[in-house]
Amino acid sequence: MTPRQTLVAEASPYFIELQQQQQQQQQQQQQQHILAKQQQQQQQQQQQKQQQQHQQQQQQQQQQQQQQQQQQQQQQQQQQQQQQQQQQQQQQLPYQRRQQ
């Protein structure tokens, strides 16, 4: 074997190892890239869920406001009833005085 051939023969196992290492690195990088994409998708889904929850909270707040309005209306009605009762009492007063 010429000196050049012996060099190639001795060096070829190292070259093969290098190639294999490079291929493994490429595969790992691709896998990491895929993982990163999946994580992004999951984050987007979570954001959508959060938005939905936010909307639900807003709806609940609106419902509470409506309930408060209803309560206010009821209070107003009660006040009216109280006024009516007072008027009735005032009307009854003269009769009671006359009877006495």
Summarize the structure in words.
- By secondary structure, this protein is mainly α.
- It contains one helix and no strands.
- It starts with a helix and ends with a helix.
- It has a domain at 56-91.
Compact summary:
The chain is mainly α.
Strand content: under 5%
Principal-axes shape call: rod-shaped
Number of DSSP helical runs: 1
- SS class: mainly alpha
Give the mean pLDDT: 81
Largest sheet: none
Coiled coil: 35-92
Keywords: Coiled coil
Main attributes?
100 residues, mainly alpha, 1 helix
Topology (elements, then pairings):
Layout: H1 3-99
